[in-house]
Amino acid sequence: MRPVFLDKIASVTRACGLKREVRVSATIPCEEGVVVAVRVLNDKSTYNQIELPSGRMAQVKRGDVVAGALGHRHALFGYSGHLPERLAPGDIVQVLNLGGVLGLCDSINPNLGKPFDAEVLGSVLTFPYLGERIGVPARAGEAKLDFGAGLETHGVPVIALVGSCMNSGKTAAACALIQELAHARLTVDGLKATGVSLRRDILAMEDAGARRTSIFTDYGVVTTTAANAPALARTLVTRLAEGGHAQPDLIVAEMGDGLIGTYGVDAILAEADLRAAFTAVVLAANDPVAAWGGVEILAREYGIRPVAVTGPATDNAVGTTLIEARTGVPAINARTDAPKLASVVLAALGLGARERARSETEASSFSEGKESVDDVASLAASSDPGEDEA
Questions:
Q1: Which residue of 37, 117, 131, 157 has the smallest Cβ count within 10 Å?
Q2: How many domains, in total, are found in the chain?
Q3: What is the per-residue pLDDT for 381?
Q4: How many beta carbons lie within 10 A of that of residue 383, not counting itself?
Q5: Residue 285 has pLDDT above 80, yes or no
Q6: Same domain for 193 and 108
Q7: Other residues' Cβ atoms within 10 Å of the Cβ of residue 76
Q8: 193 with 335, same domain?
Q9: Using 50, 70 and 90 to split pLDDT, how confident is the model at 130?
Q10: Is 43 left (phi over 0), alpha (psi -120 to 50) or beta?
Q11: 284: which strand partners?
Q12: Average model confidence (pLDDT) for the chain?
């Protein structure tokens, strides 16, 4: 055990609450989520940042000592890599994503260049036993995933965002929906159920107006798979639906990656209880063919008809016209016509009338409040100004 000073702490380790000075061990369990300190060996001009626990992005330079977590990644438009079978100080690993996932790179994306190489320094230790200097390897996550956990929505509607692939506009659509629904005075919570550890998307949901958010990393999962995705989806939905002091009016659930992928979206949709929990499904697609294929897959394999198609495929009238003609599903751009997308979703949830009633009630309350303020102002105007000056 020896001390190491960290220059960057990756967001995948957020639950550990690491400080700049940590203790590391030469014994490294090669298991997903184990926190490891590494020294970066090269500079990069692209894909050269790390997301910090705060959500800020920090540029990484050669020589930086970084705390990340072991894991794998199979990204269509990013790096692909696997979990090492064994590691010792001095071994070389690669930084596979912006959240600080560390593994052995198998395949690169030419647009991103080669990943950061990093020398392993040791596993970062935590000291859970009060009064004892017994260190154990730190692990990502606030709690351990219960694979047998049930699903309980408590009657809260769930809007599921699925995509034809990664970078198809799911997060933009989720945030647009959250913002519009929050403007309608609905309490919205958000989650990300699948993908590779990165908090950026749920932070964007919070910026858009989500009251609470949750992500699979909260349960120690660095990268989701078909084996753990259904349990994660059940756990995340149930956690937000319980609501603590107050339940949300609805939940927006983003499924990272695509309908055809390795992160478990297909495994989630294959579960009858989860399909039943998704009150409305919105499909994000990059082009009209992807939109048609996504609608077909949802219908043929899962019996799901999306309430809308969004994403880059709907960036102009050409795409929307083609999609609606070939699929019969409304094509609505989340960035340019968010109110329409929210209206379609609300109608599918049966909340349109509820939202209008709430708005009318608030308008009435505002009018009554304004009359009271006017009465006070009139009274003040009729009083002796000398008393105020005294």
A1: 131
A2: 2
A3: 35
A4: 9
A5: yes
A6: no
A7: 14
A8: yes
A9: confident
A10: beta
A11: 163, 310
A12: 90
Q: Are both 175 and 133 inside the same structural domain?
A: no
Identify the CATH number of the domain in which residue 310 sits: 3.40.50.300
Place of tokens 């692209």: 46
Residue 350 — pLDDT band, cuts 50, 70, 90?
confident
CA distances to 320, 321, 336 from 328, in Å: 11, 10, 21
Position 55 pLDDT exceeds 80: yes
| Confidence grade of residue 132 (pLDDT, cut at 50, 70, 90) | confident
Mapped onto helix, strand or coil, the DSSP state of residue 268 is helix
Please report the pLDDT score of residue 352 as a whole number.
58
- What pLDDT, on a 0 to 100 scale, did the predictor assign at position 187? 96
- Residue 168 sits in the same domain as residue 103: no
Cβ(66)–Cβ(7) below 8 Å: yes
* Of the candidate ranges 62-76, 202-216, 362-376, the one whose mean pLDDT is the lowest: 362-376
Instruction: Tell me, yes or no, whether 78 and 110 share the same domain.
Output: yes
The pLDDT score that the predictor gives to residue 1 is 84
Integer Cα distance of 239 and 325 in angstroms: 39
Are residues 126 and 268 both part of a single domain?
A: no
Burial class (CB in 10 A: 0-12, 13-18, 19+), 171: buried
Look at residues 77, 96, 112 and name the one whose alpha carbon lies nearest to residue 286: 77
Whole-number pLDDT of residue 129: 81
Q: Look up tokens 């259904």; give the residue.
A: 230
Tokens 């200097």 belong to residue: 133
Q: Is 240 part of any domain? A: yes
Render pLDDT for 292-312 as a digit per residue (tens, 0 to 9).
999 999 999 999 999 999 999
Find the domain containing 191 and state its range.
Answer: 158-354
Q: Which residues pair with 81 in a beta bridge?
A: 73, 105
Q: Annotate 110-125 with DSSP letters as a single string.
A: TTT-SPPEEEEEEEEE
Q: Which two tokens stand for residue 78?
A: 């990013």
Residues 129 and 217: their CA atoms lie apart, in Å, by 24
Q: Is residue 387 part of a domain?
A: no
Beta bridge pairs of residue 161: 254, 282
* Angle, vertex CA 27, rays to CA 118 and CA 69, nearest 5: 45
Domain assignment present for residue 197? The answer is yes
Shared-domain flag, residues 91 and 172: no
What gap in Å lies between CA 101 and CA 138, rounded to an integer?
Answer: 14
